[in-house]
Amino acid sequence: MRPGRSVLTEGICDVSSETTLAGMTAVELRSAYKAGTLSPVEVHDTLQDVIESREGTLNALWHRDPLASRVAAKSSEQRWREGRPAGPVDGIPITLKENIARAGIPMPSGTAGVEAVIPDRDAPVTARVVESGGVVLGSTVMPDWGMLSSGVSSLHGVTRSPWDPRWTTGGSSSGAGAAAAAGYGPLHVGTDIGGSIRLPGTWLGLATLKPSAGRIPLDAPYLGRCAGPMTRTVADSALLMSVLARPDDRDWTSLPAESIAWEDLGLDVRGLRVGLHLDAGCGGAVEEDIQRSVRGVAELFAEAGADVETLDPFMTPDLLDAVDLFWRVRSWNDFSALSSEQQAAVLPYVAAWCAPGADVTGRRVLECYQQVMQMQARAVAATLPFDIVLSPVAPVAAFAAEQPMPYPDNGKGMQHIGFTVPYNMSGQPAATVNCGFTDDGRPIGVQLSGRRFDDLGVLRAAAWYEQHRPAAATPSWPAVPSQAQP
């Protein structure tokens, strides 16, 4: 912390260092603001020091304006002093992924191959955050067009894990995940079409939620896409949902406004029907330590009285290949519209991955779409008997930061999303919570999915596990490289 600044240390805010404050939750900060023991300006300024000290290594932020965010923090400080906070996240630091529009802030979609779009208005997500008094610290980076499960970008370079800079963050919400784990504030918003919130969740030890389709209004909705919270605790994800899930007429696919008690996370798991899904039926084999950690979650639920049964695979390699090809065609359409100079600037891995989309017939594209709908039907039918389904998030733990995808062979494409992508296509909610670590300290997350529209039920199950998990599965925040050593 810079000389001449102090942090109040009464009550809940027994803050003795930057690290302690950087690890505080949004729920804790809100309580401290209400009690007057900590101010949004103090928090903002301290986190700027954290960002300054770590950003050169992590590379999480695309756009940052400390002067503007400090003005927002100052306004929040005044509202709290007068006892009139603007909303649930007033004064809480937050970041937004670069593909979530902020008026006047360029949106390059993570690639050097395009001229960044400069939006003239905020996206629904941004509008809700600002209306509620959130202090936006910046926009976070993503890989080219969001089509990688890593932090490798032709524009931004490599984004690295706060646990160990040799490891990937996951993606495509790479910067959001890194910012959350590193202590750049407690609240972060990512987007997800096949696992882009949950994959950083598992590889960074975070609590995340891919909400039900339409739960959070978007400015550019399409099949499988959603925005959602990336935080360090389930309670913080729930707090952020209370803001993000508010209606916006701009999203014609969004769900009707609904009163949801997001803060009510209590759950008695006795009699809860829990599915244990360890074989996706497609993609790469699940590593043994990941299987062991997820089984441990199921055993904990069973010991508490839940009825745990095995869920057989419902995906097939053909279904996974179909969504992969569908995306390749979509990305090829974007790529082929660029000039030769622009194409040369796109990340070579992404250019090679989308190239097979060039010669796909309209008939084959329609077949892929029909298979995606089949994936949706299978996911809903297979999971319907269960209140919650437990599974790995990905079959592998965090890989090298410079590696674009978990499996280096480009032909393997999306072989790591067999557990995550079905819930994008079905629109079902799915959360992540850390449930263990590999021998060398890499985080392991469990995915908890639920029935369509039961976002609160999923968060309750995630909160129950978070509160009952063993100490060995509980991350210490903020993540620092020394924690990653065996």
Domains (count): 2
| CATH fold assignment of the largest domain | Amidase signature (AS) enzymes
Query: What is the helix/strand order?
Result: HHHEHEHEEEHEHEEHEHEHHHHEHEEH
Terminal CA distance: 29 Å
Mean pLDDT: 95
Nearest-angstrom radius of gyration? 21 Å
Q: What structural class is derived from the secondary structure elements?
A: alpha/beta
Regarding CATH, which class of the largest domain? Answer: Alpha Beta
User: Uncertain runs with pLDDT below 50, 5 residues or more?
Assistant: 1-16
| Biggest beta sheet summary | 11 strands, mixed
Counting DSSP H or I runs of 4 or more residues, the number of helices is 15
Helix content percent band: 25-40%
The CATH superfamily of the largest domain turns out to be Amidase signature (AS) domain
Task: Tell how many strands the DSSP assignment holds.
Answer: 13
Going across the major beta sheet, what is the strand order?
1-3-2-6-8-7-12-13-11-9-10
Please name the CATH architecture of the largest domain.
Alpha-Beta Complex
SS strand fraction: 5-15%
